[in-house]
Design goal:
With 141 residues, the protein is of the alpha+beta class. The chain has helices at 14-24, 58-66, 90-99, 119-131; strands spanning 28-29, 32-33, 46-50, 71-77, 82-87, 106-107, 110-111, 113-116. Strand 1 and strand 2 (32-33) form a beta hairpin.
């Protein structure tokens, strides 16, 4: 009798998720081979961006993402080189994720990664920033 088991692990950023998949792929637990993969994030009006230069000016970041639609709020974690961009409408976030294909878009000479950020990911991002001594202002409100 063949039994299949699955587990779902959610990471707050795609960078960590990809590292976990690379580490776990084809490893074994007992006699069972692990098949790891990343899933698709649910579309939201907030996007997570990674790979940003730490010295990038806020206005340049806002201008670049403003090309996709009206940006309501932005939160830039300079210590990690990542940001959350909250768009006024989900359609703008969708345009952003589609137009800035992972690994093909550069900002300030760095290749960036872009994905949707759900509410849990946004909270985790803010907590991480606060823990590192950075101000998150009213981003979650």
């Amino acid at each position: 009798l063949f039994r299949s088991s699955q587990a779902v692990v959610q990471y707050w950023d795609i960078k960590c998720a990809r590292k976990a998949v690379q580490f776990l792929e084809l490893q074994k637990i007992g006699k069972y081979v692990i098949k790891a993969k990343t899933g698709k994030n649910k579309v939201s009006n907030c996007v997570w961006v990674d790979g940003l230069p730490n010295d990038l000016a806020d206005r340049k970041l806002m201008k670049r993402f403003g090309e996709c639609g009206k940006v309501e709020k932005m939160l830039f974690d300079r210590k990690r080189g990542s940001a959350l961009i909250l768009f006024k409408v989900t359609l703008a976030a969708r345009q952003c994720v589609r137009s800035m294909e992972n690994g093909k878009t550069t900002i300030g000479g760095n290749k960036i990664q872009v994905d949707y950020a759900n509410v849990r990911a946004q909270v985790a991002f803010c907590l991480s920033m606060e823990k590192s001594g950075q101000d998150v202002g009213d981003f979650l409100f």
